[in-house]
Specification:
5% of the residues lie in helices and 31% in strands. By secondary structure, it is mostly beta strands. The protein has a 16-stranded parallel sheet that branches. Strands 15-17-19-21-23-25-27-29 form an eight-stranded parallel sheet, with no helix packed on it. It has a five-stranded mixed sheet with strand order 7-8-13-12-11. The longest helix is centred in the N-terminal third of the chain and has 13 residues.
């Protein structure tokens, strides 16, 4: 009995009091107690890390932190999150790096690539991992859940419909084939060979399995990745997530979610609330979502130009990010690549600030704002309103920005790259007109607006019935003039096109109390605006991201042109400070004098460049990198701390003493001394 009591006491002492940190490692064991960042060895048990995140979720409480080490975590379900209303549960990885970070595979099983055999040129058969889904039946299983491969080991996607030879990099989808024989002629496909219990696959670019990673999903469940439905108070950060499900993360009807430093492949972040239970206080920072759609079955299509959209199998509603019924939230540094609809703000989403969003490669809409079909008035709870999007770029999508029946949406310092357009609709699906007074108050300022489909406004509100379409304001924008039609705007309702001057004076719609670009410019050609105009029309999209940065030229109409009355975030899409009169668009040019603390130069010669690396910079807007007290002698300083530049009192004309430095980085000569005057032998006349 004494032994039992002692064991109970020791067990109690080993449990952390209050908030605890639990450890998960690839060399841990769920037989450990999870209290130590240590491997599962005989000498460490029981004080060692757990092996699976799922087990950690079953043990952790609100306020705790689950610290997941670097490496690959296959087969995780991630369905056991608690509901936290006072202090959050934090799931933290070692970072989203594809090599040294934490990689989590939701409902995906590892394939033994070393056991694969080549059965035809470029066609392989690999043993099915135990528990694999071998016979998907529904279209959802075939399209959203099935197979993945990492052909390049990179963590980004660089592909759009407009490219004929684009490469999706990172984890991408393999299309399911109903017959084994169909795999042979279709790169990027897979089928199960029941005759030998193996998967037959032909990888993209005819890659060898031994040079890649292949993962197979478990039998399809709910289609939910990290399941946060009806949860609250969850923070997830520092991971690369590959989803064998339709979504990566799925918060619904809860509060206080934070997602930071994440990369998701295969499934998007789907956030949904309802008017009786909005999702509130959502924070998204430094998150990337890629390849939520799949890949074209025929990537050799040579005629895929404007209007030609050749795709493989994909979920028709796949998105990088969907906010439906989300209020009072922020999105910062979000990247979306390759999906059906990139980002959606829908059904009562309101009071959202978006800063530095980059979206490209969507089949349809890059970013869309959609009020609910059930809306009955301009103040209906399902109306999307009060959204600010700043310092962002949208490109390589059918429509870069698409708005339906919304109000109070503002765009500042955005760049729309072709083939994107800008579309405003005054009707809800089914042709029904918007509620009274909608759309309303759509503002676009300080932006570069370009599109292969032509920059256009489409307003169809039963031909302006019910007094909608008011307070549309554009100003300080730049429109390239060498678009295919040579025009800037198109108004579909009246089937008219026009240049900027005609647009400014046109009164053909019913948008009352509106202004049309009184201080905007139309400029030719695009090459005078963008550093890489080819990146906007198929020549070079294989970059991360496709380049649409500004040409560093004083003649660029987007340089030092926009209104400085609204500073916005003060930082552009690349993190460069906006100074003086800011540039139009998502990027700030260095022409015209960027501050030293964000100009990419080591101005003070201390071996450090710009804020925050150079401690001479208090922020990115500092005009000098010099900081008295940093130990380096910068321009305008005689000395700095103990660094006297090799100078001594003697160098300053003294003969002795100790030179010092004041707190204002000037010489302190109080310790320096001149030579004493020579001793004079006085003559005394009374000396005898």
């Amino acid at each position: 009995m004494r032994g039992v009591l002692l064991a109970l006491v020791l067990s109690a002492l080993s449990m952390p009091a209050g908030a605890a940190t639990w450890w998960v490692r690839t060399d841990g064991s769920d037989s450990c107690n999870g209290t130590a960042d240590a491997p599962d060895t005989a000498g460490n048990r029981p004080n060692c890390a757990w092996r699976t995140i799922d087990h950690a979720l079953s043990q952790a409480k609100c306020g705790d932190t689950i610290d997941v080490g670097a490496g690959d975590f296959y087969g995780e379900d991630l369905k056991g999150f608690p509901t936290c209303t006072t202090s959050p549960l934090t799931l933290r990885g070692a970072g989203p790096s594809p090599t040294g970070g934490t990689r989590v595979y939701i409902e995906l099983l590892d394939v033994d690539e070393s056991a694969c055999t080549e059965v035809a040129t470029g066609v392989w058969e690999c043993p099915a991992p135990p528990g694999a889904m071998t016979s998907p039946t529904s279209s959802t299983e075939k399209q959203a859940a099935y197979q993945w491969i990492d052909p390049a080991g990179s963590d980004y996607v660089a592909w759009s419909c407009q490219r004929t030879d684009g490469e999706m990099q990172g984890w991408v989808q393999l299309a399911w084939m109903s017959s084994v024989s169909a795999v042979n002629g279709n790169p990027g496909s897979l089928a199960y060979n029941s005759a030998n219990g193996k998967f037959r696959m032909r990888l993209w670019n005819d890659a060898r399995p031994s040079s890649t990673q292949v993962a197979i999903p478990k039998p399809y469940g709910s289609g939910i990745g990290m399941d946060l439905r009806s949860k609250s108070g969850i923070t997830i950060e520092g991971m690369q997530v590959v989803a064998g499900t339709a979504t990566c993360i799925s918060p619904t009807m809860g509060d206080d979610f934070a997602f930071r430093d994440l990369t998701c492949y295969g499934g998007g972040i789907i956030v949904q609330g309802v008017s009786s239970n909005w999702v509130t206080n959502l924070t998204i920072e430094r998150v990337k979502v890629f390849n939520a759609m799949g890949r074209p079955l025929d990537e050799t299509q040579t005629s895929c130009l404007d209007g030609c959209w050749e795709y493989g199998r994909f979920s028709s509603d796949s998105q990088c990010l969907q906010l439906s019924g989300v209020v009072s939230s922020t999105i910062t540094d979000f990247t979306c690549g390759h999906t059906r609809n990139g980002v959606s703000f829908a059904n009562g989403t309101k009071d959202i600030t978006v800063t530095r969003m980059r979206e490209y490669g969507a089949f349809n809409h890059g970013v869309q704002f959609l009020s609910g079909d059930g809306a009955t008035s301009a103040d209906d709870p399902s109306i999307v309103l009060n959204i600010l999007v700043q310092d962002s770029e949208f490109g390589a999508s059918q429509e870069g920005i698409f708005l339906v029946c919304v109000r109070d949406v503002e765009f500042r310092h955005i760049t729309i790259s072709e083939p994107s357009g800008f579309q405003i609709k005054g009707y809800i699906t089914g042709g029904r007109g918007c509620p009274f007074g909608l759309p309303r108050n759509i503002d676009v300022f300080n932006s570069v607006l370009n599109g292969r489909n032509v920059w256009y406004q489409e307003i169809i509100d039963a031909r302006c019935n019910a007094g909608g379409n008011e307070d549309f304001d554009w100003d300080y924008n730049v429109y390239p003039s060498d678009l295919p039609s040579g025009t800037v705007h198109r108004h579909s309702a009246s089937n008219s096109t026009m240049n900027l001057a005609a647009w400014q004076s046109w009164s053909g719609d019913c948008a009352g109390n509106s202004t049309r670009d009184p201080n905007s410019r139309q400029s030719a050609p695009r090459a005078s605006i963008f550093k890489n105009p080819g990146g906007l029309n198929m020549a070079n999209d294989v970059t991360d991201p496709p380049l649409a940065d500004l040409v560093d030229s004083a003649s660029n109409p987007a340089v030092n042109f926009a209104s400085s009355a609204w500073p916005g975030s003060g930082i552009d899409l690349d993190g460069n400070a906006r100074v003086g009169t800011p540039d139009a668009g998502a990027y700030e040019s260095t022409v015209g004098g960027s501050p030293q603390c964000s100009d990419g130069l080591d101005n003070d010669g201390d071996g450090k460049t710009d804020y925050p690396d150079d401690n001479g910079c208090q922020n990115a807007n500092d005009t000098t990198e010099a900081l008295c007290g940093d130990g380096f002698i910068d321009a305008g300083e005689q000395c700095d701390g103990s660094n006297l530049g090799g100078q001594t009192c003697t160098d300053l004309g003294y003969t002795q003493g100790t030179l010092a430095c004041t707190t204002s980085c000037t010489y302190d000569e109080s310790g320096c001394q001149a030579a004493p005057p020579p001793v004079q032998n006085l003559r005394r006349d009374d000396t005898r």
